[in-house]
Each structure stands twice: as structure tokens, then as C-alpha cells.
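Hallway conversation turned thread

IA: we were arguing at lunch whether anyone had actually written out Chloride channel protein, CIC family end to end. Turns out nobody had. So, for the record, here is the sequence (466 residues) and right after it the C-alpha cells. Reply here if something looks off.
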Amino acid sequence: MPKREKFPHSLLNQEPKDTLNPFLSKDKTSIFVLFLALVVGVFAGLVGTYFEHAVHLVSDTRTEWLKGSIGQLLPLWLIAFLISAGLAFIGYYLVHRFAPEAAGSGIPEIEGAMDGIRPVRWWRVLPVKFFGGMGALGSGMVLGREGPTVQMGGAIGRMVSDLFRVKNEDTRHSLLAAGAAGGLAAAFNAPLAGIMFVMEEMRPQFRYSLISVRAVIVSSVSANIVFRMINDQAAVITMPQYQPPELIALGLFLLLGVLFGIFGVFFNKLITLAQDLFVQIHQNTRARYLITGSLLGGCFGLTLLYIPELTGGGIALIPSVTTGEYGAVLLLLLFLGRILTTLLCFGSGAPGGIFAPMLALGTLFGYAFGLITQSLFPELNIEPGMFAIAGMGALFAATVRAPITGILLVIEMTNNYYLILPLIITSLGAVIFAQLLGGQPIYSQLLHRTLKNEKLRQQDLPRPSP
């Protein structure tokens, strides 16, 4: 008969609850963090969704004023200029007066905050980004609402941390990241892209842990549920549903990715040059800053009357492009024109993002590429719209350097799940060539520029006398 093993006396007398208490304590902490992530996601969803409604309200009101009695008092072009200039003035003034960190996209600010090198003044950023974004985007400028929504989501994450007096730095970091994910999910009705954006694009700053990943997922899902409750569950972009292309045509998608990889590096450098040019013009003085921004907004009010395709974020343009309303030559001209207008608006420091303008650029060039290849290879039965969708993901991958996020974002926005293989090939080609050319991710580049300029301004400040 085998002998029983003898256990130490201390283990026999140890109560089970002493062993379980640490685990129970950790579970309670995890549940509390997830609850806060849920709160962050709900508020991010509300703010992001109603921000979209507010921008549409301003745009519709501007159009009604132009069509109404006010348009009969003065020439239409003058009214259009004054209204858009006034709306842009609101955005630029709020940014320069109350929260300079709310200028531009805002995503680099969240990345800097996750790295502990940028402050999150949520009590300033939230109202400035919301109402300033309403003015800038409502004026017709080529800006997107996704960057502002991500920054406002991150600000909500920090606000919840402060209101609940969260002291743990890892928890505060997780809620900040969760807010950013919820903001993107609410901006594009894309919960998977919101989750992956934080984990892929913000990977240098994101602190990977089981609880932080769960917090990001909870926030993204809850924000998206709020979005769908207020709006609906349809895809953000309405466009044809495509079947998978023939395998022999996949080489053309790779070629498109190579072209976007080259263009992405060039485009990122142009953005920095545009920002530097505007700084030289207004020299960061309020009067020059407001005059420059207002004149720019007014010019886009005029452009909205005569060439509306060159104005706005571009999401509304994508369905008309993919239904074949434009020829290849006109698409390429619009592509070049929107490059210029995107650089002007984003480079000026207006409170708006660059996500949507980039997606529109990818659609324009991608569809033009599709039309050209369709005429060259009629035997392949190519649908040009396939290349438009692939182009959206490829340009995002080349500039932001987050291919998985770009793939998920495009699929969720267009509901074209059958095109996942062409999207992967195109985005992969874009990323590889952008890396080979030495290009830097756009948001990292913008954050580095912000930190550099901040350091230079501090050096120029007069030092107190001893």
C-alpha cells in the first residue's frame, strides 16, 4: 500500500480565503476598470455621434441661408464667402484663444498623452474641439471629423479618470486609450477598426495588458452601440457590393499599392511643409492667425458654390465616384485638386482631421486606376470600384502605417467583406514601399513636430532675472 505524501503543517492549517483574497481583489479592480471603460465608451459614442449631427446641422443651415432671403440681399458669392469665413473664424478663434492643442487632428496629442509627454486639458479640449470643429467643418473646408472625435474620446477617458479620482497610472492610461478607440468607433461605425487603431497605430504608446485590451474593446463596442442606437446599423458609405476579383488580377492590386506607397511618403512630407508655410504666414500671432484662417474658410465657401467636389471631408463624394459618374481624366484632376485643398485646410491648423480626406483621395485615384486597367485588360472583367476600395485602405496604410486598421476600417465602412484579399495585398504593398523609401507615420511625424516647436517656443521665452 503506497504511503501518503505528507504536506507541511503550515499548508494544512492555511485557510483557503487567504489564497483567494488577492485574486478576488484583482477581479474587483478589473471589473471597476471595465465599468469605467463602459462609461467612457458611452460618452464617447454620444459625443462622437452628436458631433456628426452638429456638423451636418451647420452645413444644412449654411445651405438654407444661401437659398433663403439672405441670398437676395447681397450677391450669392459674397454671402457664401462671408458665411464660411465666419464659421471658420469661430473654429480658429476657439483654438488659438483657449486650447492650441485642439488644432489639427488631435490624434498626435492623444499619442503624446499616452506617452506622458502631452497634457490632456479635457475641460478645454472638449468644448473647443466640438464647437470649433462645427465651425471649421461646417464652413466647407476639407477636413474630417474622425480626428476630432478620437481626441474628444481620449479627453473623455481622462475626464472619467479625474471625476472618479483614479490614481493608478495604468488605469488612467487604459481609459485614455479606451476613449480614443471609442471615438473612432463612433466616427465611422467601425468597432473593430477602433480597437485595432489603438493597438496597431498607437502601439509605441499603448501599454499592452489583459485589462487594457479589455477596456479598449468594451469602450469601442459600447460607443458603437450608442452610434447605432442614434443613427442606424447601415454602413457609413453606401456603395456597390463587389465579388472577389480573379486571382490573376491580384498583381494589379499590388501595383496600386506600390503607387500609393510612393505617394504616401510624398504626401506626408507635403503636410509638414504646408504646416510650416502657414506658421511663416501667421507667425502664431492671433490677428494674423484669424485673418488667414477666415480668408481660407471664405475661399472654400466660394469653392463650395462652383466646385463642390473639392470641398468637405470627402465621405459624401465616395458613393458618387464609385457609381461611375466621373471619367478617369476628371478623377485624376479631382485627385490633384483635393491634394491641394487638403494641404491648405489641414496645414492651416484648423480643428479637423485628415482621415476622411485621405479616404477620398484613395477612392479617386483607385477608381481612376481601375478605369484605366479595365480598358487595358477587358478580358479580366475588372470592376473599377474594387480598386477604389483598395485605394482607400492603401493610402491609409501608407500614410498612417497601420495596414490592419486600414483594412478593417474600409471593410466596415463599405460592407465589402469579399474584397479582404485585394485589400490586404494593396495595403501590404503600400506599407512595404513606404518603409523602403524611409517615410514616417503621419501622426508620429506630427507629434514630433509639435514637441519640437514647443521646445523652440520655450527657448524663445524671456528668462526671469535672478
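OS: looked through it. The two ends are 89 Å apart (CA to CA).
IA: good, adding that to the notes. The chain has two domains: 31-230, 247-453.
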